[in-house]
Amino acid sequence: MINLLAASTAVPQNVFRTTELVGSLMHKLSPELINTISSLGVHQRFSILENYPDFLCGKPKAATSSTTKLGVAATKRCIHEWGGDPDRIGLLVAATNTPDQMLPCLASEIMGQTHGLLSRSLRTVNMQSQGCSVLLKSIEVAQWYLAANPGELAIVVMSEAHTPYVAPLLRGEYCGYREIIRQRKQQLDPLEFEQQRLDTTFVIQSMLFGDGAVALLVGTEEGKPAFGPISHLTNDQPDDMNLLRMVNNSSHPFLKGRPQYFMQPSVPTRGAHYAKTTVQNVLQHPDSPVSDLTEVADCLIHTGSKKILDGVCSQLDLEPKSPKVHGSYQVLERYGNLSSASTGFMLADKNEWAGPAMVVGFGVGFTASAGIMNFN
């Protein structure tokens, strides 16, 4: 087992409340769609774009940060708050779904901006485009390294800048999904139906995601929270591979060749199944300190959306208003969906350990990971 020695986050300086974004687009959004946005559970999000509302209305983006800069800031803050000798760090694992560029990868970019802090001879591992469950996979990679190199430390960084990836909302009117279905029944052209549904998805994505980074320093130290058994599940059904996907060059005119993200309507249901399965596997592991979620003090669940969180809670027999899942809903409210960094933010915000904590992530792949944490 390895221990969590320190955890720190970094967010852009620009924060936008959902009410502000909806207000800037009010003339375009139907009342039903506004209700859907309100139900996402996101009160605000941080963006690397200082003009995010204007960007959504078609203006050129004005960035004040980036995925790399956020990752560097979280790394530096984590090491500073830890206060130890950074020369003990022998491994950097970096993950992102929203890289600033294809090559070099995030770990190399962080190394390029941490001269004088991180050793030039440490190992680097990049885990890009692995969705929202990559944090625990990265912890396992660090665990393997530390088992082979006793006394050394590893730093795991998750950094995301989603907001520049969303599509500008340039249509004159956007309707809710149910409204579009009603229009289809009234002889709406099939191509127009698919186009309107996709455009509504763009609106939801613009309100759901946020930007931020987290760095976790791990090693072996008594009296610190320890990572226990971890379970994974990937493509339980063949068709699950396409539940979430992103294409490199979108043909949508508003995206102008940028990547485009697709999510199937069954994601909440399938995500809950993946979460429940991996959690059960962890609880049944002989090295788990608990065998039932009633014995867990906190359940830190990836912030897909409020609907997804509610579905996972239902599958795990947890009340959404329970203190056990308060941290998950709170991160969703304050930061939006941070994909790979979401559960890391929950760990960084966790100041007290009243008992074991279950960490659950799921997403692109389709894949899920769950792991137990406890004090030694």
Estimate the helix proportion, in percent: 25-40%
Strand order of the largest sheet: 5-4-6-7-1-8-13-12-11
Elements, N to C (H/E): EEHHEHHEHEHEHHEEEEHEHHHEE
- What is the 3D shape? globular
The H-level CATH homologous superfamily of the domain at 225-375, spelled out, is Thiolase/Chalcone synthase
User: Any idea of the CATH topology of the domain at 225-375?
Assistant: Peroxisomal Thiolase, Chain A, domain 1
Mean pLDDT: 92
CATH class of the domain at 225-375: Alpha Beta
**Could you list the spans in which at least 5 consecutive residues all have pLDDT below 50?**
none
CATH architecture of the domain at 225-375: 3-Layer(aba) Sandwich
Structural class: alpha+beta
User: Can you count the beta strands?
Assistant: 13
Could you outline the blueprint of secondary structure elements for this entry?
Layout: E1 2-10, E2 14-17, H1 18-24, H2 31-38, E3 44-47, H3 52-56, H4 67-82, E4 89-95, H5 106-112, E5 123-126, H6 134-148, E6 153-161, H7 177-185, H8 190-208, E7 211-219, E8 225-234, E9 244-247, E10 260-263, H9 267-283, E11 298-301, H10 306-315, H11 326-335, H12 342-349, E12 357-363, E13 367-375
Parallel strand pairs: 4-5, 4-6, 11-12
Antiparallel strand pairs: 1-7, 1-8, 2-3, 6-7, 8-13, 9-10, 12-13
Helix pairs in contact: 4-5, 7-8, 9-10, 11-12
